[in-house]
Every structure is written in structure tokens, then in C-alpha cells.
Amino acid sequence: MIDTGVDDVTRRWTLRLVAGLAAGAVVLSGCSERQEANDTLPEADASVSASEPELPPLGPPDLPMPAEARTQDAAGAEAFVRYYIDLINRTSTVMDAAPLREFSDACADCNRIASLVEEDAAAGRQYNDGRIVIKAVGAPLMREAAAEMAVRAEVAALTVKDATGAPLPDLSSPAYADLNGGVAIKWNAIKQTWIMTVLTLE
User: Fold this and answer.
1) CATH numbers and ranges of domains, the chain
2) Of 14, 21, 85, 133, which has the maximum CB count within 10 A?
């Protein structure tokens, strides 16, 4: 869970669809032979250049990882962090923590968030709002196969409800503004994606 100094504030998230699958470029080329005036010119011989192999999709079908989050550069690192926050927000409507675990490795707060979602889902609880909004991201500090960046965010008020739809005030949390923190991610060359290793907001 994200450490804001209050455990309950880590129970937050709503669906925020991110699109952005890249399409391969198609190049047409052709040639035509010179013919006598009374002959019909042959059609141009069109050929399609081989495009880069498409990456296998990652993430849940309703919130696939965008292509821009799968590049090993500063832009890709920031896009991945924003995508991971979207996965957290998704649990406001889809109580599914699997993607949070899939795209993290030894990330304590990521695992805490996932565990809370799984625990609440098993109990039939539901979330209402609690969306995390990233207000600013610092320029990523790029290393060989890793990156770190500072983030500033705000969190909307969260209402947790039981299986009957009744609010659970003890599990709900107020809104939080101007939370500061940071993230650390590493590159997974096999999956061609970043993986979250540290996520903190307080």
C-alpha cells in the first residue's frame, strides 16, 4: 500500500482506461516498365516492408499496457509509472490485484495494496472513488536497466462498502492533497516492460 502515514489511505483506486498501442508502418513501393504506346502498362508491383514485430499484449484486457510504456527510455519509464497508477485506480471498479503483482518485484507498498484488494474482494467489499491523480513527475534518473523519479499526487476520498452496499467508515479514508514520494523501476528484457520495485507517497 502507499504509505501516507495513515494505512486506510492506501484503499483507493478507480478505472482509468489507457490506450496507446502502436501500429506498424506500411511502406508501398513499385515500378513499371516502359511500354509501347499501344500496350497496356502493367500494374505497379506493390510490396510491403517488414514491420517491427508486435509486442505481445500485457495487462488486463480492459486496461492493456500502452506501447509507450514499453520503451527502455525516460519517456517509457514515466509512461509505465502512470500506467501502474491507473492499474491501482482500476481496483475501484474491478477488484483485481493480479496486475499489481505481475508488474512489481519486491515492491513492499505494491504488495500491500494488492493484499488489501484481495482481502476486501474476498470479503465482498467494494470501493467508491479513492482515485490517485499524479500532479507532477520529476525527470527520471536513468541507470543501465533501472530508473528513479519523484512524484507528487493527490488522492480522492475513498468510501469502502460491505457486501450489502453499506459504508464502512472505519475502512474508508478522506482525501489527501500534495502527497510527495518516489518510485523506482527496473527493466525486464524478457517481457519488454518496466517493473515497479519501490512506490511511496506520504
Assistant:
1) 7-25+60-201 (3.10.450)
2) 85
